[in-house]
Amino acid sequence: MEVGQKVRVCRIRDRVNQGVANTLGKFGVITGFKMTDGSGVGVVVKFEGQGSTWFFEDEIEVVP
User: Fold this and answer.
1) Is 1 inside a domain boundary?
2) Residue 59 burial (CB count, 10 A)
3) Which residue(s) pair with 52 in the sheet?
4) CB 1 within 8 A of CB 30
5) Which InterPro entries match (predicted)?
6) Mean pLDDT over residues 41-56, rounded?
7) How big is the chain by its Cα radius of gyration, in Å?
8) Taking a C-beta distance cutoff of 8 angstroms, is the pair 42, 34 a contact?
9) Residue 61's beta-bridge partner residues?
10) Per-residue b/e over 31-45, b at no fewer than 16 CB within 10 Å?
11) What is the 3-class SS of the chain, one letter each residue?
12) Domain residues for 38?
């Protein structure tokens, strides 16, 4: 995955607030990366008109 790629949120691993839950199935663009709990890297995704949040790599899929 690379910055600038378009992605779709395909699943959410953990319990999250309603705002993040509403991103399920939505499309966004990768804007960066974030260290998680030391065992992985999260992907920061920006959504049109909804701000941005981060996801684990297995929670999003690249859209061609």
Assistant:
1) no
2) 19
3) 46
4) yes
5) Tsr0524-like (IPR021291)
6) 90
7) 11
8) yes
9) 8
10) eeeeeeeeeeebbbb
11) CCCCCEEEECCCCCCCCHHHHCCCCCEEEEEEEEECCCCCEEEEEEECCCEEEEEEHHHEEECC
12) 6-62
